[in-house]
Amino acid sequence: MTQPHSRTAQIVGEVPVWVAELYSSMDSLNSEAVLAHLSDDCRIRFGNGEPMVGHEEFLAGTGAFQQAVRGMRHHFNQVWQCGDSAVLVTDVDYIRHDDSVVTLPAITVLHRQPDGLVDDMQVVIDLTPVFGD
Q1: pLDDT, tens digit, for every residue of 7-45?
Q2: CA–CA separation, 42 and 59 (whole Å)
Q3: Which of 86, 70, 105, 98 is nearest to 12 (CA)?
Q4: Which one of 29, 33, 118, 123 has the largest count of C-beta atoms within 10 Å of its C-beta?
Q5: Burial code of 18-41, b = ≥16 C-beta within 10 A, e = fewer?
Q6: Where along the chain do its domains lie?
Q7: CATH architecture of 10-131
Q8: pLDDT tens, residue by residue, 65-84
Q9: Is 88 within 8 Å of 108 (Cβ atoms)?
Q10: How far apart are CA 47 and CA 92, in angstroms?
């Protein structure tokens, strides 16, 4: 008997190029570079925050966060890709302005349109430790 997802879902040994390019832009803290990977009507939600819809809301929402950290690095532990969607299990290093590093686990679900632009991103993470002492 075949497993129900054996034909459509697979664990990817390497990070898909489209995911790697998106996260390279994110890790550079270059919002304009990130926007090049997002559809105009993208929906992005971090943790239990309100979804940001569109480029303008993304820039407003991430601008304040980018001022709170000096840098970040994503480490991919597991990636599943199924069609135009991907699920990522990552550890994210947040580098604070005092050079301390807070590493947090995150799960992200991405969806992209046929043109390759990401139109939905949901990140399950608790960012509270980044702002703690």
Answers
A1: 344 445 678 999 999 999 999 999 899 999 999 999 999
A2: 12
A3: 86
A4: 118
A5: bbeebbebbeebeeeebbebbbee
A6: 10-131
A7: Roll (3.10)
A8: 888 899 999 999 999 999 99
A9: yes
A10: 14
